[in-house]
Design brief:
Distance between the termini: 33 Å
Largest sheet: 2 strands, antiparallel
Strand content: under 5%
Structural class: mainly alpha
Length: about 150
C-alpha cells in the first residue's frame, strides 16, 4: 500500500486517465523501493527487487497495450491449436517414416553410420518423446484450464 502526495492511500494500479496522478505516485514509490532494494546485499532483497522490476515493466506494458489481459479462454484456445499443430507434425513424421522409410534411411546413412534397426529405434523413440512433450505441455494444461474454468463458472 502506498500513499500519494496528499496522503491518500493508493490501492488501484490500473486506473483510467482521470486519476493519472495516483498511478504516477504508485510508480514513483515502487521505483524508490526498487532502488533501495538493489543497493542491498541481501538475497531476499535482490529477489524482491527483481519482482518489483518485473511488476513495473508489466504495468508499463499493460498501459501501452490498452489494459488488455489474456483470458483463460484465449489460453485454452491457444493450447488447443498448439496440440493440433503438434499432432499434425507427428502424423506427417509418421507418414514419411512409413511411406518413405528406405529413402530417408539412405539419406541419413550418408552422414551417420547406423543399422536399419538403430534407425527405426531412433525414430520410434523420437516420436514417443515428441508425443509425451505434446501431452505434458499442450494437452494437460488445456485440460487443467478447462477444469479450472468449469469450477470457477459453475
Amino acid at each position: 500500500m502506498f500513499h500519494n502526495a496528499n496522503g491518500k492511500k493508493v490501492t488501484r494500479i490500473y486506473q483510467y486517465d482521470g486519476v493519472l496522478s495516483y498511478r504516477q505516485d504508485y510508480e514513483q514509490a515502487l521505483s524508490r523501493t526498487l532502488v533501495s532494494l538493489e543497493r542491498s546485499k541481501s538475497t531476499v532483497d535482490i529477489a524482491v527487487a527483481g519482482f518489483l522490476s518485473a511488476r513495473l515493466k508489466g504495468d508499463y506494458q499493460q498501459r501501452v497495450l490498452g489494459n488488455s489481459v489474456m483470458s483463460i479462454e484465449s489460453v485454452r484456445r491457444a493450447l488447443l491449436w498448439c496440440a493440433v499443430i503438434n499432432y499434425g507434425i507427428l502424423v506427417i513424421w509418421f507418414l514419411f517414416f512409413m511411406l518413405a522409410h528406405d529413402w530417408i534411411y539412405l539419406l541419413h546413412s550418408r552422414w551417420f553410420h547406423m543399422s536399419v534397426e538403430q534407425f527405426d529405434m531412433l525414430h520410434y523413440a523420437g516420436m514417443a518423446i515428441y508425443k509425451i512433450g505434446v501431452l505434458l505441455l499442450n494437452l494437460v494444461p488445456f485440460i487443467v484450464l478447462h477444469i479450472v474454468d468449469r469450477n470457477i463458472s459453475g
